[in-house]
Write a structure and sequence with these properties.
4-stranded antiparallel beta sheet; two-stranded antiparallel ribbon; 39% helix
Length: 103
């Protein structure tokens, strides 16, 4: 299994909305990918609740895929690309790690 984790720091304001509104919109978009991309085995999206930590990131995505090929298909999917377009408008920075999970 392949696990794909992405974390973002969002801009305070972008695309006509606050960081909080954009985080909620990202969550809806990212969770919706599972409906449209059959290669996603599982998806979880979290929004930071600790607003007191200035170093904390704002949004995290955790996706699981059965195979490397499934992960590659996900990255090429039009729904994924559309999500990336929005995220690039609102994100300040992005961190990612992809790794194999032994079951």
């Amino acid at each position: 299994m392949i696990r794909h984790i992405v974390m973002w720091k969002l801009q305070d304001e972008a695309a006509g909305a606050t960081k909080e509104k954009n985080a909620e919109k990202m969550k809806l978009i990212l969770e919706g990918l599972r409906t449209n991309i059959e290669e996603i085995k599982d998806v979880e999206v979290g929004i930071q609740i600790n607003q007191d930590d200035p170093d904390a990131l704002d949004v995290v995505l955790i996706c699981d895929f059965e195979t490397d090929l499934d992960f590659q298909m996900y990255t090429r999917n039009a729904h994924h690309k559309k999500a990336v377009e929005f995220i690039k408008q609102v994100a300040e920075s992005r961190y990612t790690v992809d790794y194999k999970v032994d079951l």
